[in-house]
Amino acid sequence: MTRDMVKRAKHGRAAHHWRRDVVELAAMFTAVAVADGVANLIGHGPDGPALLVVSSVVLAATAGFHTWWSRRHGHAPPAGDTGARPGSIEPQAGPDDVAPRSADAVGGESTLWRMRTTVRDEPGALAALCTALAGHRIDILSLQAHPLGETAVDEFLLRAPGTLSSAELTRAVALAGGTGTWIERADAHDLVDAPTRVLGLATRTALDAAELPLALRQLLGRCTIRTLPATAPGGGRGADTVPVEGVLEDTVMRLRAPEGGVLTVERPYLPFTPTEFARARALVELDARLGPRVPVGTDVLTLPEGNPITVRRADPGDLKAAKAMHERCSARTLSLRYHGPVGDADRYLNHLLSPRFGRTLAVQTASGRIVGLGHLLWDGDETEVALLVEDEWQRRGIGAELLGRLVAMARDAGCESVYAVTQASNTGMVAAMRGLGLPLDYQIEEGTLVITARLEKTSAGSRLPYDAQRRAVEQYDGSAARD
Questions:
Q1: Would you say 217 and 381 are in contact if contact means Cβ atoms under 8 Å apart?
Q2: What are the pLDDT digits (tens) for 307-317?
Q3: Are 436 and 454 in contact (CB under 8 A)?
Q4: Structural domains counted in the chain
Q5: How confident is the model at residue 390 (pLDDT cuts 50, 70, 90)?
Q6: Are residues 441 and 307 in the same domain?
Q7: Domain endpoint, select from 290, 315, 347
Q8: Which of 88, 200, 411, 481 is most buried, by CB atoms within 10 Å?
Q9: Same structural domain for residues 453 and 400?
Q10: Who has greater pLDDT, 90 or 134?
Q11: Same domain for 201 and 325?
């Protein structure tokens, strides 16, 4: 916006300049002198009429050229135009009235990328990399540098034009001196700065021991997390081989597990940085100091026939009650659940009830008897769901209730899918999975059926389909009579 336009917007009238008046007055005197000379020439010369015609043609051509030139330069943007345009002199809406235009609205669609590359730890190396990114109209949203002696690992969160592919971005980084470049798509969750994200993960870990594997996975990206016993059979690694401060070996980190043993985190595609190792170790130490814990909370529901039940989180303290439920279950029910000898069912409970390996929901009657268990198990980078309902309480909607809650937990934990291992003859489990209303994949191997439900198409703010299909299972007031 020119200075004249600013003054017009401010005072409501054009600014007055004496230099313009002088130029206009000089032009007027010049025009009068030229007109007097032309009149004398036409009146006293022999070719006066022809000269008059030629003068009129020249004047018309000059006027046409002046009009074309004024329009062309009056509407063309100035050199170095960045796309900004003068605003209207009408009153403009404030920031609360109109949402600001994003970069996407001005320059087309954009893509978020998470990128890690290695550069030499010397002056100008990072500047050259940033200059190369700017040359491709890439906006650096966040940057973390991890010095490693002669080199440094730089982590970027980038917003790039939607037309720029990952291969082109990697090539530009390589030409600027970056090596070992790793890149993947990012989303809005990555816009949170690292300290805030780590504090959030620490809070979740402090509230629930089952959150530790999820917190590590969200902190480190796609990785495999395993827990080995303190004394591994066959001379394998145990707690004695891992120092208190842990061990970092390129793409593998080993830490002392809070309950004893070794916690192994592996990410084959990308080495861990010392910063990532320190953050992971801090989360594990926080979990160890707080000890075993499960959030307190129950939902009391009423089954269609009127019996009240309570759904709550289970922990190792429920081991005795869970074994008693096993004794009341038929051999077929235990076989469908554990896919092995019925006599071995009890030995799985220590693992299933431990919050280190997932989350367990228990269904309890008003008299305190456990009649159903639902498990959400962290299996490496996958998630398994499993159900067990006592025979006398089957076909009352308990399995569907448990499964819906477990899938909701998995979705809240950021899981993309859950799978259930069962048999084709287990019609109850198959019906419960189909009742979720989610995309399902089926695989059958040697009589074993694996059903995978994909969660990525379920929006974060929507409710799962099972909420609308509870078959009259309603919220129950805890003051109801006991059975």
A1: yes
A2: 788 899 888 88
A3: no
A4: 3
A5: very high
A6: yes
A7: 290
A8: 411
A9: yes
A10: 134
A11: no
